[in-house]
């Protein structure tokens, strides 16, 4: 007797939350650009040749020798105490206000889980980091886009928006933003912190690139400004997220969140349900690598500075009139805007034919838009690849604009 007709329809069992999930546009694009002769500026990957391989190998040996079997055992959800203490000291806060997470992406997912109710309004930059939209979407928010310009978030537009919109939180990347590479000025940072506090809006600051500054002066974090405004770590309405992925190595997946105690308490509970704790050995290794961090930041920053400058020089030479692009002060990305009417999604196959690839800008907009934009990453490309790739991209643009 056949029972196949009684088997459940597995697709129908998928939850409504899961049905809202979508594949990463960047990951899907990377699949079609894997031909060895295509030069890809699509993935925001740290340069692998800059990974401190010998130091990581030594850190693993040191951690195993120092901690023995404890390095391989289950650990506390909050994170390895010496690592949390080092992080906390940088902002002058107690270690209890630091939560270690398994990569920044997990941090965003956990924040979405504990903060977003279905229908809550979440403010995001236009454009914003695609991974944040992916993390928040299963919790079914309503998005409102905050306009941006060359200086980042338009705080005047935000002020008008907050007068008519009851928002739960605002997600922002103030330093060398992904995808545009833009940096928020000190004046705008102060106003952003003050406006969100005034309107009771939680401010999530994502800062994975802040250490990778090429030019200009370092600016205070939104978290530091929020702490200054509140005068108390547990009244600070800014939540700070960062990672060692862009400065040391991404594969260890060591990142962290700094927040007021009520938020950290719920993060701990959410993380227990997700993975119990970030891998013990990885955290111990990262702690052993901390003395190397200043030199590694200098090495990585110098390489990206050179690559970014080379890409801009080639763009100046190769791109036709009417194509605009940002000039980042740091980080890994820059943003290209073509004339209205050019669709960079439709243009991508032609670019691949010309042996170059990028990420179309449209997926970075929560509510649509940006059809004529794209993101380029220079972090993992050689000077030769940049020269050849910008020549091919310039040719692609000329063909599209002809």
From TrEMBL:
Gene3D superfamilies: Aspartate Aminotransferase, domain 1, Type I PLP-dependent aspartate aminotransferase-like (Major domain)
Cofactor(s) annotated in UniProt: pyridoxal 5'-phosphate
Single GO biological process annotation from the record: alpha-amino acid metabolic process
Domain Aminotransferase class I/classII large: 50-393
Pfam families reported in the protein's UniProt record: Aminotran_1_2
Family label: Belongs to the class-I pyridoxal-phosphate-dependent aminotransferase family.
Subunit structure of this chain's protein: Homodimer.
Name under which the protein is recorded: 2-aminoadipate aminotransferase
Organism: Deinococcus wulumuqiensis
Species classification: Bacteria, Thermotogati, Deinococcota, Deinococci, Deinococcales
């Amino acid at each position: 007797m056949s029972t196949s007709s009684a088997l459940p329809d597995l697709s129908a069992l998928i939850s409504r939350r899961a049905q809202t999930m979508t594949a990463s546009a960047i990951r899907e694009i990377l699949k079609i650009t894997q031909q060895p002769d295509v030069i890809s500026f699509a993935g925001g990957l740290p340069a692998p040749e800059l990974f401190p391989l010998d130091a990581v190998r030594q850190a693993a040996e040191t951690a195993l020798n120092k901690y023995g079997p404890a390095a391989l055992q289950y650990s506390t959800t909050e994170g390895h105490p010496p690592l949390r203490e080092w992080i906390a000291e940088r902002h002058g806060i107690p270690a209890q206000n630091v939560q270690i997470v398994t990569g920044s992406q997990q941090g965003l997912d956990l924040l979405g889980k504990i903060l977003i109710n279905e229908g809550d309004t979440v403010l995001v930059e236009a454009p914003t980091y695609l991974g944040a939209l992916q993390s928040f979407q299963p919790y079914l928010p309503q998005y409102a886009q905050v306009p941006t310009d060359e200086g980042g978030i338009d705080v005047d537009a935000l002020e008008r928006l907050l007068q008519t919109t009851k928002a739960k939180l605002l997600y922002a990347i103030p330093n060398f933003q992904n995808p545009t590479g833009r940096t928020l000025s000190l004046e705008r940072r102060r106003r952003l912190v003050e406006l969100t506090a005034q309107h009771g809006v939680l401010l999530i600051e994502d800062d994975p690139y802040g250490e990778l500054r090429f030019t200009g002066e370092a600016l205070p974090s939104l978290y530091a400004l929020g702490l200054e405004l509140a005068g108390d770590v547990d009244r600070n309405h800014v939540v700070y997220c960062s990672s060692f992925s862009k400065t040391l190595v991404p594969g260890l997946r060591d990142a962290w969140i700094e927040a007021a105690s009520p938020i950290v308490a719920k993060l701990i509970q959410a993380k227990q349900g997700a993975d119990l704790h970030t891998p013990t050995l990885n955290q111990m290794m990262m702690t052993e690598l901390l003395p190397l961090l200043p030199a590694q930041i200098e090495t990585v920053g110098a390489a990206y500075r050179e690559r970014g400058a080379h890409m801009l020089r080639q763009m100046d030479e190769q791109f036709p009139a009417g194509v605009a692009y940002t000039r980042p002060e740091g980080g890994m990305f820059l943003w290209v805007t073509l004339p209205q009417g050019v669709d960079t999604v439709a243009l991508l196959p032609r670019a691949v034919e010309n042996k170059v690839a990028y990420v179309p800008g449209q997926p970075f907009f929560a509510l649509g838009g940006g059809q004529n934009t794209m993101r380029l990453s220079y972090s993992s490309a050689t000077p030769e690849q940049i020269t050849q790739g910008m020549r091919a991209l310039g040719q692609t643009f000329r063909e599209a604009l002809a």
